[in-house]
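Hello forum,

I keep getting stuck at the same step: I have a sequence, I want structure tokens, and every attempt I make locally crashes halfway through. Rather than fight my setup again tonight, could one of you with a working pipeline run this one for me? It's a single chain of 190 residues.
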Amino acid sequence: MSTTPDVKEIEIEIRSTLAEFLKEMGAKQGRHIHAKLDERLRNRGWQVLREYPVAGDAWLDNLGNPAPAKSRAIDLAVCSGGKPVAFIEVESDLAHAGKVGLGSHYSVKSLSRDARGHHFMSYQSLERMAVAVNLGRSIVEISSDKPQSHNPHAIPLFLVVHNCKKSEIIALEPRCKSLGAKIICELIRS
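Reply #2:
Ran it on my machine without issues. Output:
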């Protein structure tokens, strides 16, 4: 067993944890997934940090101004030698994904832009990870569709969701592609 996990190993552990969680908890909301996932990753011998700190502006507020992350931490960071090799954010759902300013607390516009110069529709969890993978570099100046621009060190990013709608995944797809991030949702509703 390697102490430095690869992307596939982490994804397998995430999917296995979600499947086990659903068997144990049924269709209840996934607030305890963090602890189960943390425990499972540690049992593999991997170093896991809970509440990995993030500093700086992370997205645009409803008025179009840069706003700091409300939660200044990423749920889980899988590390090797004290350095993050993957980030994991856990959400119970993706309510209102892609509907910024329509009563959503978590849907936001990214500070970074796509290749056409438009701000990405995003989710707070994705933007916290975007700030973290840029290691102190401001994401405001980034205008690209390429993961090499938005995630220069190719750190694997996982947005783990207990349940979501297919339309919510589609709304976040451009931002996920730009970051090289993966949404793993156990219960996808139509």
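The longest strand covers residues 83-91. If your local run keeps crashing, start a new thread with the error log.
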